[in-house]
Amino acid sequence: MRTIDVRGGRILVGGETRHDARLTISDGRLRAIEPAAVGSDAAGDYVAIDLAGGWLLPGFIDTQVNGGGGVLFNNALGIEGLARIAAAHARFGTTALLPTLITDTAEAIEAALDAVDVAIAAGVPGIVGVHIEGPFINGTRKGIHDPALIRTLDRSIIDILCRPRRGVVMMTLAPEVVAVEDIAQLAAAGVILSAGHTDATYDEALAGFAAGITGVTHVFNAMSPLLHRAPGMVGAALSEAAIWCGIIADGVHVAPAALDIAFRSKGADRLMLVTDAMPSVGSDDDFFLLNGRRMTVEGGVCMGEDGTLAGAHLDMAQAVRTMCAATGADLPTVSRMASASPAAFLGMAQDRGTLSVGLRADFVVLDAALEPVQTWIGGIKVAG
Length: 384
Ligand SMILES: [Zn+2]
Fold this sequence. Notes:
Elements: E1 2-7, E2 10-13, E3 16-18, E4 21-26, E5 29-34, E6 45-50, E7 55-58, E8 60-65, E9 67-68, E10 71-72, H1 79-90, E11 94-102, H2 106-121, E12 129-133, H3 155-162, E13 168-173, H4 180-188, E14 192-195, H5 202-211, E15 213-216, H6 232-239, E16 244-248, H7 256-266, E17 271-274, E18 287-290, E19 293-298, E20 301-303, E21 309-312, H8 316-327, H9 331-338, H10 340-345, E22 363-366, E23 372-377, E24 380-383
Parallel strand pairs: 1-6, 2-7, 8-11, 11-12, 12-13, 13-14, 14-15, 15-16, 16-17
Antiparallel strand pairs: 1-4, 2-3, 4-5, 7-22, 9-10, 18-19, 19-20, 20-21, 22-23, 23-24
Helix pairs in contact: 5-6, 7-8, 8-9
The structure holds zinc ion.
């Protein structure tokens, strides 16, 4: 049993903001949330946190993390690489993430699924599943994905994706290049499907949603745009109320005005901040290799040799700050886009995404400037 008294700032508990709290934690979960006591009357393991004018928020949940700490998941399909990626993002407040495999071979996809299984079994903090982004995407919207590896869906991959796993399995695909029966089969097997790298028409997008796609990957980027007579994937993503949209809030991938438009269209409960992070997050590296091709990191932007954006040099705390500035929304609202909304999308709202009794004790302490100070996963301090 651990008792943490939190004072000196604001604490987001459930949907409300408190000025102090006593958190009682056992087995990684919050057992009680009460007003902080005056002085330490708690027996056993006692911790006091002074927020110094800052905030304590639910830990961030990131559904799209290609790398961090100098490691690219595609290049390090094992537990050590996953631990380094998770630790790099924990420093910025992320307490749950999906390592994300950019379009790669069938062997790499299977190895990625297996590696995440091993990491979850071993209890690597912060790894909760895997995101397979491609290869069943539209080459005309490939972004940085290697066109030589983009292909049509085959039976053997469906079987690999549908095997039972310890964590969630999310897949980004283009609905116009995958048969609706295959989309339905993947969804029925529990694979969380997201439309991305897609040139779908509005109608093709709706058909994909009807077949079982529940999300849209980095909305606006690498997809058919919203034209007034051809609303495309962006139009479908913004207008379909049930669909969750990931969005890269770095101010580079999506202009601040478009971040605001997405927020006004979707609301905080269907928009999810993602980093699409590359190995440079939490590292000083200024280049990395993707499928053997050299990517550079310059001025906070990752790109290929032709200038194509190659994921983002972005952490979740920065995404939260950017979204606050772009939308004018208050921090409790933006926090939902970083925690509760992705938890709901992943089917994990009973475990994480808010600070509530019975849920996991995953939280981040931010200072008054919203810079991360401490991160706790399962009631254990992992950064700060
Ligand atoms: Zn992408």
